[in-house]
Design a protein that fits this description.
There is one protein chain. By secondary structure, this protein is an alpha/beta fold. 34% of the residues lie in helices and 18% in strands. It has a six-stranded mixed beta sheet, sandwiched between helices. Helix 4 (122-129) packs antiparallel against helix 18 and helix 13 (353-361) crosses helix 16 (485-492). The longest helix is centred in the first third of the chain and has 23 residues, at 158-180. It is globular. The structure holds flavin-adenine dinucleotide. Flavin-adenine dinucleotide binds next to helix 3, strand 14, strand 19 and helix 17.
Length: 564
């Protein structure tokens, strides 16, 4: 969702005190290893310094997915002495849509990149508590130092570049105003709630960016609107910003304060959370295929000698064997891409209509990233982005996917810099059919057209493939014109819905798409996992606020986990 230059950001960016605070490093944390020889289960994940083994006493909770929401749920349950836990993860790693890979010395983010907002953001708090390096991402500065290029090497004059920078900043201010002021106003919302975001922007752009501009100036500015359009699609994670309505911005809440990145890898925040989960409770390479529950009507009845209402069948992908586990509660954290695609064959009895239709109607399109590494960067040392502005500004279907490669952010530092481009929707899906080399070649052709013939081939091209990832099938959720915050609540509601059910809270639902205020983000996903853990704790009348960690020792990370 929207990345913003908030007043707080401006204040904090200019504060030397905070910069020092953010870059202060504390001792490194334990490393994450997968022990294939683990006694407690073949593909369990273990951490150095992890909690003692999972217990077989107390209510059995199975968590499907070891993304941040699943990990947060397990950590919070364990912190409150519910240790009969099993986290089943289909992939051979934890983290889900938090995925950092290494290309040479570069930490490249395949998924989550920014920590959105500082105030009350548990992800930032965890990063700080482990001493991870945190860098403020100043959107205005990034634009000040971007390199702007036109097709066929035509150069923008300094005055034109200034005009483009101002247009970009005006756009950020328009969004900021819309979110923090206009969307809080009932009359504005009443008038605009179902208006598509592009129409809304076009009106404001005409008024605030294009007004009084003619001739070449106007042409250049119009070409930059395509960049802004693309930026909004990327932030919202949608195919076409025309599908997105203003009320989406009203439902979503922005955490105040600066956005930031973790130069040493976003995945650093996973370890401290996973370490709070009992040893051997996380089982990797375990793809859940069937969940049988009891809806009190046509359900499958109780299993495991009549004690446990839910049966979970998963495929141990290493051995190919089907395994069965019985549970009192199952927290489902898979993406809505997976829920939509595999839900009908997974749940028996099927999920109720309000849940499946919410899942189907919420936007969950593909966003992919292209990382390009070079031996010798072709951009200048302090440059923050390479922006390619074509003269033709039309937004049309059937365009070549590379038409949407407009802005490449320069990531990393020193010699370990690389370029990161983003694609959304159909073009993001299209690029998945190509090899990394094919994508790299097209990028080079593009750079040579815009920047000049001297641009070298990248040494490494890496393309993410979130659309065809069988454990994701998309990127992040967004409200569109046909959905409301109530759809998110429907998705999050536990089953069976009947409060008097003999076995309540059999199925619980977490994951970013179930977070009404913070959908599409890492912190939203984390809050959702904690929310479902709290639901179970309340059911057993546990003290929700307890922050006792391993062996009763207070843990800074657990304190963050408990602050919801
Ligand atoms: C390209 C991209 C960029 C992003 N950028 C940002 C950003 O800058 N900032 C931000 O805050 N957020 C960003 N996000 C969103 C953020 O990454 C997600 O909101 C968050 O990580 C989701 O966490 P989760 O636990 O809800 O889901 P996931 O991380 O998807 O976790 C679900 C887990 O379930 C597993 N699973 C699925 N099916 C099964 C099954 N059948 N059996 C067992 N396991 C299964 C998956 O493998 C996965 O590990 C981005 C996402 C993408 C894709």
């Amino acid at each position: 969702m929207p990345h913003l230059v908030t007043p707080q950001l401006r204040r904090l960016v200019s504060s030397a005190h905070d910069k020092n605070l953010l870059t202060k490093r504390l001792p490194p944390t334990a490393s994450f290893t997968v022990h294939s020889h683990c006694t407690a289960g073949k593909h369990c994940a273990m951490l150095q310094g992890q909690k003692a083994a999972a217990s077989s006493k107390g209510p059995k909770v199975v968590i499907v997915g070891a993304g941040i929401s699943g990990l947060a749920a397990a950590a919070k349950l364990s912190a409150n002495n519910i240790n009969n836990l099993l986290v089943l993860e289909g992939k051979n790693r934890i983290g889900g849509r938090i995925s950092t890979i290494k290309i040479g010395d570069r930490f490249v983010e395949e998924g989550a990149t920014w920590i959105h907002g500082a105030d009350g953001n548990p992800i930032l708090a965890i990063a700080r508590s482990i001493g991870a390096k945190v860098e403020v991402w100043d959107y205005a500065e990034k634009i000040e130092k971007a390199g702007w290029h036109r097709k066929n090497g035509r150069r923008f004059s300094n005055a034109e570049i200034k005009m483009l920078q101002e247009a970009y900043k005006t756009h950020l201010a328009i969004i900021e105003n819309m979110i923090f002021t206009e969307c809080k106003d009932e009359d504005f919302l009443h008038e605009h709630r179902r208006q598509n975001v592009l129409n809304f922007f076009e009106e404001v752009w005409e008024e605030q960016i294009l007004r009084g501009r003619t001739g070449e100036e106007e042409e250049i500015l119009r070409s930059s609107l395509r960049l802004l359009y693309h930026k909004e699609c990327q932030d919202a994670g949608v195919k076409d910003i025309r599908d997105c309505a203003i009320h989406s911005f009203a439902v979503y809440e922005t955490l105040q304060g600066y956005d930031s990145v973790l130069p040493g890898g976003y995945d650093k925040i996973l370890e401290p959370v996973a370490r709070e989960i009992p040893e051997s409770a996380i089982r990797l390479n375990s793809a859940v295929e069937r969940i049988e529950w009891n809806d009190g009507v046509g359900g499958c009845g109780c299993h495991d000698n009549g004690k446990k209402p839910v049966r979970v069948i998963y495929n141990d992908l290493a051995s190919g064997r089907k395994e069965t586990v019985y549970a009192d509660h199952v927290i489902v954290t898979v993406s809505i891409g997976c829920l939509h695609r595999y839900g009908p064959s997974t749940f028996f009895p099927p999920l109720p209509e309000d849940k499946t239709s919410a899942c189907k109607r919420l936007s969950f399109d593909t966003v992919n990233k292209i990382a390009l590494a070079y031996d010798q960067p072709f951009w200048s040392r302090d440059q923050t982005a390479v922006i390619l502005l074509a003269d033709d500004v039309t937004l049309g279907k059937g365009e070549h996917w590379s038409r949407d490669l407009i802005q490449f952010n320069v990531r990393g530092s020193g010699d370990a810099r690389w370029l990161e481009g983003w694609l959304c929707g159909d073009h993001a899906d299209e690029v998945e059919k190509l090899t990394n080399d094919e994508v790299g070649k097209t990028c080079t052709e593009l750079f040579r057209k815009f920047v000049g013939p001297h641009v070298p081939e990248p040494t490494v091209t890496h393309v993410t493939r979130w659309g065809s990832d069988r454990f994701c099938h998309g990127s992040y959720a967004c409200l569109n014109r046909d959905t409301t915050g109530d759809d998110i609540d429907n998705l999050a509601a536990p089953l069976p819905g009947n409060k008097d059910a003999t076995h309540p809270l059999q199925l619980l639902f977490a994951g970013e798409a179930t977070s009404r205020k913070y959908f599409g983000t890492v912190h939203g996903a984390m809050f959702s996992g904690q929310r479902e853990a709290d639901r179970i704790l309340r059911h057993y009348s546990k003290a929700v606020g307890s922050v006792k960690g391993c062996n009763g020792v207070d843990s800074k990370v657990l304190q963050q986990l408990s602050k919801v």
